[in-house]
Amino acid sequence: MVFGHTSATQEAQTPTLPNQRFGHPERRNQLLVIDVLEWYHPTMRMVQQENRERVGHPPRFAMTHSKKRHISFIAVAFFALAALPVCGAPGGIRPFRTTAFFSKGFSRTRWKAYVLASGGKRAYELSFEPEYGPKNEIIGLDLVLADAQKRQGLSGSNLLNPHNWHGLQPYDFLGKDLAQGADKSSFGSHRELKLNGRKLLVRMDISSARVSPLPDGDYEIDQLELAVAVDNLSS
After folding, report:
1. For 118, what's the count of Cα atoms within 13 Å in the CB-facing half-sphere?
2. Among residues 111, 147, 116, which one has the least CA distance to residue 225?
3. Which of 161, 88, 160 minimizes the C-alpha distance to 123?
4. pTM, to two decimals
5. DSSP, res 170
6. How many Å is the Cα radius of gyration of the chain?
7. pLDDT mean over 202-219
């Protein structure tokens, strides 16, 4: 007997395994363990899902009724808070009456007053905003209504002009427009503004107005007195 060599007859009798695999025949180089894992994981996921449903647990990604209610509550609260700046002071305001006064001799003292919410908190600030001529003469006064909590001191924050209109407006009091008297001014001596977004009604009555001519043809305001009323706008 010779060790280490195999005869041609023995080689012919050695069975040859066919070149095929189980699982994925098209993947010739894939290991058998991969086929087993690919079969095992989907099968186990199906078994786990059936067990969850059998014991009464909802699927992993199902939204429970309590979660839906919680999300709905958050959404309602968010929209309610977002609507507050548009709708004005919650609960409305206390009816407000004041006299807005300007005098050339006291031009450094800036007039202002506050409109209170129904709960007593400051809701709006009323003030005069001067318009200056080429030599710093005060040739006009704008009545400004601003949010007391967001006051910026800019004419762009005037709530009496919610649409940012240009040109002469009812809250503008220009010396040149008042030169022929308040009754003959562009908007007359009695003026009203309805602020639907804030649910406010603002009334302005010119009690007194005195102006002086300037060399350039304009007019300087010497004195201006307004009776101002702010009320809740009835629907």
Report:
1. 7
2. 111
3. 88
4. 0.60
5. T
6. 42
7. 97
